Amino acid sequence: MSETTAGSGRETAAHDTVEAAVRAQLTKALGGVRGMLEAAVPTIAFTGTYVVAENIKLAVGAGIGAAVVLLAVRIAQRSSPQFVLNSLVGIAIAAFFALRSGKAEDAFLPGIILNAGYAAAMIFSIAVRWPVVGFIIGSVTGDPTAWRRDPGIVRLCSRLTWLLVLPCAARVAVQYPIYLADGDQSGLLGTAKIVMGWPLQVAALAAMVWLLARGRTPIEREEPA
Fold first, then answer.
1. Which of 119, 217, 106, 98 is nearest to 170 (CA)?
2. Residue 23 confidence class, pLDDT cut points 50, 70, 90
3. For helices 198-213 and 18-30, what crossing angle results, to 10°?
4. Could you give the 3-state DSSP secondary structure of residue 222?
5. What is the DSSP string of 169-198?
6. Is the pTM of this model over 0.90?
7. Is-contact 73 56, C-beta < 8 A?
């Protein structure tokens, strides 16, 4: 058995209930406290620099520079750069929008669009009874679709997916009207993005943990052939 396969087997065996598996996988997906902070730092650097200097190019440089520094730290520590790379891609796309239009608030438009897309996709997955959280269970059990045979697990995954929808929908509901407002709204948009970033995600995760802590649904793993 390869080291990778053995590691996967140990990770799977560590979770005996659906609730424990989902809770662990969601925490891993968010990258923990460090991963969420790394996602916020480039936005803070961009917004803070623009508010002080009112220079889009300088603000873009500060945001990208912050992401590059975080990436260098990850590389030096030989830890996974996944969440920093996500942040770097995000700030690069935001920079493209802002530099193309010359308006700092346009840096926040991709994030608004992305959150709207996530919310729509997750709501659709619930409507067709393929809630996205179900695939987390599938990644643990070894069968990506077996969870759908249990109506109780489908309902649980739907409720958990709704808890992921709420932060995305809230960001769009608050930030898009600010974006449409007259005048330079970059400072307010930056503040809203930071406040509604990892704090909202942590709140959603806490709600999910609370919901998951109430149940103990056994995991039925696929037996090897």
1. 119
2. low
3. 170
4. coil
5. HHHHHHHHHHHHSSS--HHHHHHHHHHTSH
6. no
7. no
Q: Is the pLDDT of residue 121 over 60?
A: yes
102-126 burial, b for 16+ CB within 10 Å, e for fewer? ebbbbbbbbbbeebbebbeebbebb
How far is residue 209 from each of residues 19, 36, 111, 125, 214, measured CA to CA in Å? 8, 17, 26, 21, 9
Place 177 in a pLDDT band, splitting at 50, 70 and 90.
Answer: very high
Pairwise CA distance, residues 101 & 67, whole Å: 22
Residues 6+ apart with CB under 8 A from 163: 204, 207, 208, 211
The owner of tokens 């508010």 is 51
What 3-state DSSP class applies to 218?
strand
Q: What DSSP state is assigned to residue 17?
A: B
Q: Write down the H helix ranges in 31-108.
A: 32-53, 56-77, 82-101
Token readout for 134 is 């179900």
